[in-house]
TrEMBL record:
GO terms for molecular function: 4-(cytidine 5'-diphospho)-2-C-methyl-D-erythritol kinase activity; ATP binding. Pfam families: GHMP_kinases_N (PF00288). Keywords: ATP-binding, Kinase, Nucleotide-binding, Transferase. The lineage of its organism: Eukaryota, Sar, Alveolata, Apicomplexa, Aconoidasida. Residues 159-229 form the GHMP kinase N-terminal domain. The keyword Cell cycle does not apply. This is GHMP kinase N-terminal domain-containing protein. SUPFAM superfamilies: GHMP Kinase, C-terminal domain, Ribosomal protein S5 domain 2-like. PANTHER family: 4-DIPHOSPHOCYTIDYL-2-C-METHYL-D-ERYTHRITOL KINASE, CHLOROPLASTIC.
Length: 380
């Protein structure tokens, strides 16, 4: 009864939806409130400092694709296409916390939050940057904003975190996973895949690349200890590389235009069928990709998926980069919508945002190298 009363008070404090509210109740605002809920005998201020509350905590580092090629001979009827891509982790990503919960804690959480079919509780704190300086836009009310977040970050079995938990579950354990969400869904930066990868690394003893492939083609790399690697096959073959010599910053430009990976690859398949898909001049060989990337100063960035983007504003950003900033190294990451720039300064990047004229988040970070375990980033 005590836990139930605490839960009702907690729900009231958070504004957890009743019949007339639209805000998803698994989106919270303060980590200490969760600690206070499961440890009702102490204050919320002290709860966050309780030693060992979370069993695992860390950064789910995002990635960028320095090159991405698809095999034009791929079987378009298969669910995945063969690729060769050079992936690099960056010092920015979601913060993920995992707690193994007992039956009493599970019951208390289930009274306050939606659960997966396995009884796990997935919570989110929205830490995506609200950086839209100088741009006129329609502001959504809180309920609409949170509803959109809930669609993009589901709290049921469709979330990649839930699918990852199914792969590593031991003895009917149940889990509480809190994601401080920084990487926007549909941005081509592997945010959801990195979250799932962090869960696999934290709770799994040994997860095969084939199991990772069930979650996504970039999960195996993101779950590995490699900072940069050539990914080939359908995403299950990883060829690690030594860190490339690039110590400067990387700017990541994220339009407020999430791109559907499914739609992009539909366009790829249509182009392959019609014989108009351009695989690029770079070799599809893993060995050649590794060799050319070692001399990173002369390495040519490439992404074959850029030709398959139909989103008008994402294409506009690409055209601005091509027209006004040809000397910088830039490319789209993954299936979009994000672009990254190497060798640019803040002034030029801000100028890009002005020319673009639509909401654009800019993240300034670095490549992840050996020994880097903490996030290092800022927003412009």
């Amino acid at each position: 009864m005590k836990l139930f009363t605490t839960c009702l008070a907690f729900a009231s404090h958070l504004g957890v939806p009743r019949a007339l509210h639209d805000i998803p109740r698994n989106i919270i605002h303060d980590e200490t409130q969760i600690c206070g809920l499961l440890k009702p005998g102490i204050s919320q201020e002290d709860a966050v400092n309780v030693s060992g509350f979370w069993d695992h905590q860390g950064i789910a580092f995002a990635k960028i694709n320095l090159s991405l090629q698809l095999d034009p001979a791929s079987d378009v009827e298969r669910p995945l296409l063969k690729l060769v891509t050079l992936m690099q982790k960056v010092l920015w990503g979601d913060h993920v916390s995992v707690r193994i919960i007992n039956d009493e804690e599970s019951d208390a959480l289930a009274r306050c939050f939606d659960t997966t079919s396995d009884g796990d509780v997935l919570l989110m704190i929205d830490e995506t940057a609200k950086v839209n300086k100088g741009v006129k836009q329609n502001i959504l009310n809180n309920a609409e904003q949170h509803t959109q977040q809930s669609i993009a970050f589901p709290f049921d079995d469709t979330n990649l975190i839930s699918k990852a938990l199914k792969l590593v579950r031991r003895d009917n354990e149940k889990y509480l996973v809190l994601t401080k969400k920084r990487v926007p869904p549909g941005s081509g930066l592997g945010g959801g895949s990195a979250d799932a990868a962090y869960v696999l690394k934290s709770l799994g003893d040994s997860i095969s690349n084939e199991d990772c492939l069930k979650l996504g083609s970039d999960v195996a790399f993101l779950a590995s200890h490699d900072n940069i690697a050539v990914i080939s096959g359908f995403g299950e073959e990883i060829t690690p590389m030594d860190d490339v010599y690039y110590k400067s910053h990387v700017h990541i430009l994220i339009p407020d235009e999430p791109v559907s990976t499914r739609e992009v690859f539909y366009n790829v398949r249509e182009r392959l069928k019609e014989g108009i898909f351009n695989p690029g001049a770079m070799p599809l060989s893993v060995e050649e990709t590794c060799k050319s990337a070692k001399d990173f100063c002369s390495f040519k960035l490439f992404n074959a998926l850029e030709q398959c983007i139909s989103n008008r504003r994402v294409r506009l950003l690409l055209e601005i980069l091509q027209e006004y900033f040809p000397k910088y190294k830039f490319r789209m990451s993954g299936s979009g919508c994000s672009f990254f720039l190497l060798g640019a300064d803040d002034t030029h990047v801000i100028r890009i945002r002005e020319l673009y004229g639509h909401p654009l988040t800019v993240v300034k970070t670095r490549f992840k190298h050996v020994g880097d375990e903490k996030a290092e980033f800022s927003y412009l």
